[in-house]
Every structure is written in C-alpha cells, then in structure tokens.
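dumping the sequnces here before i forget
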Amino acid sequence: MSGGGDVAVVGVGIHAFGRHDGVTGLEMGAIAARRALADAGITWQDIDFAAGGSDAAGNADTSVSMLGLTGVPFINVKNGCATGGTALTTAHAMLVSGAAEVALVVGFDKHPRGAFNPLPEEWGIGSWYGETGLMLTTQFFALKIQRYMAEYGISDSTLAKVASKAFANGARNENAWRRTPLSEAEILGARMVNHPLTQYMFCSPGEGAVALVLARGSRVRELARVPVYLRSVAFRTRRFGSFEVFSPSIPIESAPSATSEAAAVAFEEAGIGPGDVDVAQIQDTESGAEVMHLAETGLCEHGEQESLIQSGATELGGRLPINTDGGCLACGEPIGASGLRQVHEVVLQLRGEAGERQVPKECRVGFTQVYGAPGVSACTVLTV
Amino acid sequence: MTETRQRLMIDPEVIGGTAQAPRLIGSVCARCATVTFPRQRSCPRCTSEDVHPRELATRGELWSWTIQCFPPKAPPYLPGGVEEFEPYGVGYIELPGEVRVEARLTESDPERLRIGMPMELTLVPVPGAPDKLTFAFEPVPEAER
Ligand SMILES: [Zn+2]
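..and the predicted 3d for all of it:
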C-alpha cells in the first residue's frame, strides 16, 4: 500500500449546476469551497495546501482573494476534462507524502451558451476538415457508439434507458440542472442529432462548482463525522490506437483506452476489485459513453451492458447504481467541476447522506471515472 | 492539367491523383509500416521520422457511420454550406491493411448504410464552395461487389 488508505475526504461542498446569470465561475468556486470547509468544520486558515481550476472560467487561485489571503500554496490546474482529477491527484500526493495535512481541491466552470466551437487549426488539422463538415464532437460520439453497438449487441432502447435513468436521478437531486423525468419513448422519439443519438442522449456545457476537503492521519478522525477514504486516484492519457475525437483517421490496431488503464491502476492500488463496487459515477457525456465506460472500467464485461441496463441493475435500487446524481446528462458539464462532482456524489452515498436519491442498499465501496478530450481519464476508489 | 486539378481540390496535400481518379495521400512509416492519414512528419506509433507519402487504397469497408442531422457551425464549416444544409452521412472506412479514414458519405439514408458494406473513394463538391472538390466515399454498386 502506498499509504493512500490514510487519506480521506472530510468535507464536501457544491454550487448547484445549471445556468446562473450574475454569478461568476470564480464566485461559484468560492461558494463551493466555503461549503466544503463548513462541512469539515474548519476554516480556510486551516488549509495547508490547495489545488484546483476551471477550463474556461479563470484561475482558481484568484478565488483566494475571495476566501482570504493566508499564503497557502495553491496549484492552478487547467487540464481539460481531467482538471478536477488532476487537482485531486496532486492533493492526494501532497497528503500521502506528508507535505500537507489538510488540503482543499476545487473545480468550477461557466461555459457560455453554445460553447465548444473548436477550429481544426487548434487541433493540428487542416482547414479542409472543418470545411468538409467533420469537425463535430457529436459525430465522434455517434461513430464510436454505432460501432460499439454493432460489435457488442447494444440496442437503441439501452441508450434511451441510460438517459431516462439520468433524468429520473436528476429529478431527485436539488443540485442537478435537468430535473424533469423523460420516458424511454420520449428520448427515442426526440430530434435525431447524429444517428443513433437523439437530443436527450447528450449532455450540454453548463455551470457549477464542487470543492472537497481532504485530510490525512490523525486529522481525519478529528475532522470527519464519517471519513470516506480515498483509497486511490489514477490518471492516464491515451496511447496509439485509441479512438478519440477529431481523428481524420484511426489505426486498425487498437489499444486499451485511457479509461481502461486508469481504472485498472486505481483498483490495483486500492486493493479492491471492480466486483466490490457498490456505487459508481462514470463519464456520461452522452448515453453511449456510459455504456462503453461501464465495460472499460471493468464494472462489467463488454456486451454485458445490454442485460445489465435492461434489467435495471444500474438504477438507484439496482445491484450497481450508476450516476446516482443524474451524471453529466442531468447535471450538465462544467468541465472543471465535473470530475469532482462524481467524488462529491460518492461521498454522500457512502455517508448515507444522499437524501431522496440515497441508494437503498448498504454502500461501502464507491468508484468514479472522468474522461475527456483528447483522451484523458482519471479514476478514484473510495471506501467507508 | 495539374494546375486545374489543384484549383479544384479542397487541399492538394490531402487529395492527389486526378479528378477522374482521385487518391488520398497518407504516409507510411519505414520503420514500423504504420499508415497515417493525412500525411504526418513523424510516426505516431514508433516516433520515427523516416516517414514517406503514400497513396491510399481507394476501396474499403464501412467501419462505422452516422448521419449529420444539423448544420455544423461556420466557421469551421463554410457559411454557404449552412444555408443550403441537407443532412449528410459520415463514416470511417477501413482501407484493408492500411488505416480507417474518416469521410463524408454520398449516402445519407440511414436505411441504406450498413457496417461492413464495400465503399469506394469519390469526389463531391464542397458544400458552400461548389468550385472546390472534397473527398467522400460511396457504396460500391451491387453489381461490382
Ligand atoms: Zn513507425
């Protein structure tokens, strides 16, 4: 053991996801941070290390001017969809090494409506790619799941069930953005965006913030009502052969995804297997992502998703509840906050404090997986 | 002839051959034989810089597909293409032993697309810039399969 079993989440705070006119991303980050500190029963002065960031809403350490100028070492993180995971990895390493005893991580974002308008030149591709009409993230998601469905026998109904579960869970989460339940038929009958994915199978860029307070050793028992141990956090990038967004070509030779590798390392370091997981939050940028990530993380076999999801196993009352807070589909995706939202939700579930959406069975092991362009993934294993 | 062709193609670094017999230009690594598209200066698999241009196969199989149902944003799409928008097919075509290439498809009816169907390289006008041509793949007619 690396000593990671000694580090725990002792406080969590969230600013509701959605659209919040008149509040900046930085302000949301500061609000989430104050809530996490209050949850741990400490103040900003007690923090001896902090890390965090956003993709598009400013430098996290600017929020120290809102929280107070205590001289705390603060590492700004800007690492796309892995921003939260990277901040968490950094804080975890500082705590494990003994360089800090109580740390705060924060992730926030505020994307304008219709954000994400990438240009080929920024991705090292010729302008022909955009002019031809190939520079769209939704196309990539559709092409990836279309192939996967054919290879592993996944149905359109299963894609729709992933989304209807997300909205059902979101309806029970006061911090979610989309809180109206939608039936499988409504989701399947909605406007087609890119076959086989309809409008309600995609998440949208949004706003929100999450902060966590972590501690080590004796500080854990002093601060936490119910300590939730961060048993491991692992972060990987893509290898040659992985199928990622904006690829004019992909090799015929395939490779394990960044998610597969990060998940395997997270489980190995925690000394816990995927079969032990009671509740998990996994990246659901669109319905297909949740399906594929279920297998990539090792939570099930490739192809097993069809029976798993059709049987209701991934619903709140099922054997393996997935995205119990509504995931990206119901919460939206403020990039910097998304990964930490997953950890926030697992902490609530393991503490038994998830209210209306509390998983009815006993939960002792939680898992999170965030994934983003152009092929980064971070996974955690948490236990009580 | 060459000058005419170069005015026509959306990017002569990407599409070679002639208007009647176009070829996609990729590259092949002299060390590990990895094929890329478009052309790259170094090999993404083994990092070698001993990489040479290569005209890719013109026939392959449909590896995956989707239909683009809404007009892409311009830029990077051309503004005229948005105004006259019609849904279009997009897919990856596996060129045997080489690489899977992403392309527009001439077919946009989901009922007529099937993973594994034989496809062939062709040229189509660039939406929003009819004086230019870009590449696409079309289903190989039944009789020629
Ligand atoms: Zn090579």
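The longest helix of chain A spans residues 335-351.
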